[in-house]
Backbone:
């Protein structure tokens, strides 16, 4: 399996392409895919907010445990988005669109009735409009971590307190080790 080869990369975490493939970040994306596949294995459109280098879209292409008609990578950093497009083109991802935009300004017009909004960057993203603008009854996946000084989340309940859902379908935590420290990543999947 190609994803297992990605686990072997041991570059330091950071805002680099190599840093985006550290074991902990890869493991958290695979965890997301596994749990989302249990609750919604077919998706019309998935917005990936703060898509960074497009790793989640890459993993979903290489190991399609979830069938997604359209993935929309949303990223404010044009260079990261361009790298994402080059990388995904190399692996034959034909269902990905690239949106160079602030997630807080989205109107989610491409969601459809069984669309999903994914935000693995709760601790890095300013503003809450990204959540407020999501239509009611939309499936949402959120991840956050506990070792970020500016905006830590210490439980799934912290996520739900800030971003309340009408229905919680999954909540859990994963103990991880990045190149510098150990931390806990929390994930909630549910409907707004």
Residues:
């Amino acid at each position: 399996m190609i994803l297992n080869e990605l686990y072997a990369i041991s570059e330091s975490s950071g805002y680099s392409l190599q840093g985006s493939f550290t074991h902990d970040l890869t493991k958290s994306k695979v965890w997301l895919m596994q749990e989302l596949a249990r609750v919604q294995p077919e998706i019309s459109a998935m917005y990936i907010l703060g898509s960074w280098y497009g790793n989640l879209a890459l993993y979903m292409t290489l190991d399609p445990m979830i069938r997604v008609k359209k993935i929309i990578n949303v990223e404010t950093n044009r260079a990261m988005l361009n790298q994402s497009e080059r990388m995904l083109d190399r692996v034959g991802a034909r269902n990905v669109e690239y949106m160079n935009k602030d997630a807080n300004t989205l109107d989610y017009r491409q969601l459809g009735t069984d669309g999903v909004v994914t935000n693995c960057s709760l601790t890095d993203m300013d503003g809450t409009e990204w959540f407020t603008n999501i239509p009611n009854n939309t499936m949402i996946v959120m991840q956050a971590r506990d070792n970020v000084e500016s905006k830590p989340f210490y439980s799934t309940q912290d996520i739900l307190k800030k971003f309340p859902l009408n229905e919680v379908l999954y909540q859990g935590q994963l103990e991880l080790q990045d190149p510098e420290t150990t931390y806990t990543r929390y994930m909630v999947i549910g409907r707004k």
About this structure: Residues 2-191 form a domain with the Rossmann fold fold (CATH 3.40.50.150). Helices lie at 2-7, 23-39, 55-62, 78-90, 129-132, 156-162. The longest strand covers residues 167-177. The radius of gyration is 15 Å.
